[in-house]
């Protein structure tokens, strides 16, 4: 349906909001009705039909529980209205709005909003069920893809990024979870603040508190001066905890305490320091495994995954291979001061039919090698050599649905056996440091 032919009802107990929305919409839609009292909703729906209802989450309540918004959302459905319901929420109530989506709302807007964004949200809500949405623009210049899966990620980013909702990014190694995290930060209200990344899986129990919460001089043997932790460094911005699924239960408890209290205490100090951060976490551990309380605290899981983003493996979106390959070819041609190569149709077919067990990262390295080694301006199939870390049997297993975690475990076992248990040589062949290899051995219980 066209925006100009739509009938819109706005329910909010703030007269300034009603006035602003009425003035905005009166020239944009066929009819706009405003109402301060949600109790009038049944009579309004009985008298006429609406295409869109803008519904506030809270009315007159001292505590913003959102219960009134959920109640009236349910009543709208019970009264048989076919209107798309868009929830109006305050910036601090974003978790309530996400819950409303799960309970049947079409979308939500955050006060204060930009008028263009509100109009776009209403227009999207008017789209018939099953209609193809307009292509979404990438949220980051390096986050590319035209496949339906990536388009869905771009749309989710557009809605989630301006809020302060905690985000949990799921996906196999090499899918680009760090790029997604950076895109969320750059499109957020905290974009001018710091973006601090922490490889949580690399933090030993003895380093965990010092790295995240900081320490005072003399707190331990090597503490020669006061040092702020990553929470303080990210104050006013975004803290990105990568590989959070590898944290032990003791570290999870300390992290949960900091997130709940929104303050940290440096090692060797008794003074709590308030912190204001937006939290983004990422892991290659499937959500089903994270939900196992023997491995991961459920209360922490609920805290970090207000919104989940699943980054699909490259093998499930072959339509994106060509655009990514061309992007990397231009990127590395500029880096190595070479003319940007083209890819022959046969080269593209070879790329699109490979299973990519190493995902986008493996494609990136494949194209980098080709740009360096190729003699002609057009890349041919023979210029594309796939990683020896991912033998053909491994690639086939990935294509058949074997988890990347299992693939990685098997590859590590084969290389270690090849070198008779010599960790140094195995790490060299795998392209890892000894420390990184030991982390993976612990991860896979080897």
Describe the structure.
- The chain is an alpha/beta fold and 446 residues long.
- It folds into four domains: 3-125, 3-Layer(aba) Sandwich (Rossmann fold), CATH 3.40.50.2300; 148-310, P-loop containing nucleotide triphosphate hydrolases (Rossmann fold, 3-Layer(aba) Sandwich); 314-383, Helicase, Ruva Protein, domain 3 (Orthogonal Bundle); 403-443, Orthogonal Bundle (Arc Repressor Mutant, subunit A), CATH 1.10.10.
- It is built from 19 helices and 16 strands.
- Strand 3 (52-56), helix 3 and strand 4 form a beta-alpha-beta unit.
- Helix 13 (321-335) packs across helix 15 (359-373).
- The protein starts with 6 loop residues before the first strand and ends with a helix.
- The model is unreliable at 391-402 (pLDDT under 50).
- One of its GO terms (biological process) is regulation of DNA-templated transcription.
Please name the defining characteristics of this protein.
single chain; 446 residues; alpha/beta; Rossmann fold; Helicase, Ruva Protein, domain 3; 4 domains; 5-stranded parallel β-sheet; 19 helices; nucleotide-binding; AAA+_ATPase
How would you describe the shape? globular
Number of E-type strands: 16
Task: Report the CATH architecture of the largest domain.
Answer: 3-Layer(aba) Sandwich
Low-confidence stretches: 391-402
Q: For the residues shown, what is the average pLDDT? A: 84
Biggest sheet character: 5 strands, parallel
> What fraction strand?
5-15%
Helical content class: 40-55%
Number of domains: 4
Helix count from the secondary structure assignment: 19
Global structural class: alpha/beta
CATH class term of the largest domain: Alpha Beta
Would you tell me which CATH topology of the largest domain applies? Rossmann fold
User: In angstroms, what separates the terminal alpha carbons?
Assistant: 58 Å
Sequence of strands across the biggest β-sheet: 2-1-3-4-5
Full CATH superfamily name of the largest domain = P-loop containing nucleotide triphosphate hydrolases
Q: Report the C-alpha radius of gyration, rounded.
A: 26 Å
Protein name: Sigma-54-dependent Fis family transcriptional regulator
Keywords: ATP-binding, Nucleotide-binding, Phosphoprotein, Transcription, Transcription regulation
Pfam family, one: Response_reg
Modified residues (4-aspartylphosphate): 56
């Amino acid at each position: 349906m066209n925006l100009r032919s739509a009938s819109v009802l706005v329910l909010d107990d703030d007269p300034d909001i009603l006035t602003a929305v009425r003035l905005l919409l009166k020239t944009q839609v066929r009819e706009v009705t405003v109402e301060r009292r949600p109790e009038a909703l049944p009579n309004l729906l009985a008298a006429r039909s609406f295409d869109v209802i803008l519904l506030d989450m809270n009315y007159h309540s001292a505590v913003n529980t959102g219960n009134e918004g959920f109640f009236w959302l349910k009543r709208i459905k019970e009264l048989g209205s076919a209107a798309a319901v868009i929830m109006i929420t305050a910036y601090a109530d974003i978790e309530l709005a996400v819950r409303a989506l799960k309970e049947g709302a079409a979308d939500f807007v955050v006060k204060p909003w930009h008028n263009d964004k509100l109009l776009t949200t209403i227009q999207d809500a008017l789209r018939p069920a099953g209609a193809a949405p307009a292509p979404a623009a990438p949220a980051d210049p390096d986050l590319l893809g035209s496949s339906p899966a990536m388009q869905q990620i771009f749309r989710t980013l557009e809605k989630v990024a301006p809020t302060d909702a905690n985000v949990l990014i799921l996906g196999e190694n090499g899918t680009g979870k760090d790029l997604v995290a950076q895109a969320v930060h750059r499109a957020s209200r905290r974009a001018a603040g710091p973006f601090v990344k922490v490889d949580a899986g690399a933090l030993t129990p003895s380093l965990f508190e010092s790295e995240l919460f900081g320490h005072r001089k003399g707190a331990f043997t090597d503490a020669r001066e006061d040092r702020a932790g990553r929470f303080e460094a990210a104050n006013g911005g975004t803290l990105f905890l990568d590989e959070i699924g590898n944290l032990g239960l003791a570290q999870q408890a300390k992290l949960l305490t900091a997130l709940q209290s929104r303050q940290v205490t440096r090692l060797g100090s008794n003074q709590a320091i308030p912190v204001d951060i937006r939290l983004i976490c990422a892991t290659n551990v499937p959500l089903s495994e994270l939900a196992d309380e023997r491995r991961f605290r459920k209360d922490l899981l609920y805290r970090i995954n207000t919104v989940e983003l699943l980054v699909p493996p490259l093998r499930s979106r072959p339509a994106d291979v060509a655009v990514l390959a061309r992007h990397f070819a231009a990127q590395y041609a500029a880096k190595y001061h070479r003319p940007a190569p083209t890819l022959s149709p046969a080269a593209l077919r070879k790329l699109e039919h490979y299973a990519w067990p190493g995902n986008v990262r493996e494609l990136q390295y494949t194209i980098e090698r080709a740009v360096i080694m190729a003699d002609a301006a057009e890349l041919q199939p023979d210029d594309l050599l796939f990683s020896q870390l991912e033998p053909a049997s491994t690639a086939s297993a990935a294509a058949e649905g074997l988890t990347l975690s299992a693939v990685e475990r098997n590859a590590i076992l084969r290389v270690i056996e090849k070198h008779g248990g010599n960790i140094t040589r195995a790490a060299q062949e795998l392209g890892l440091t000894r420390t990184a290899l030991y982390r993976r051995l612990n991860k896979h219980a080897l």
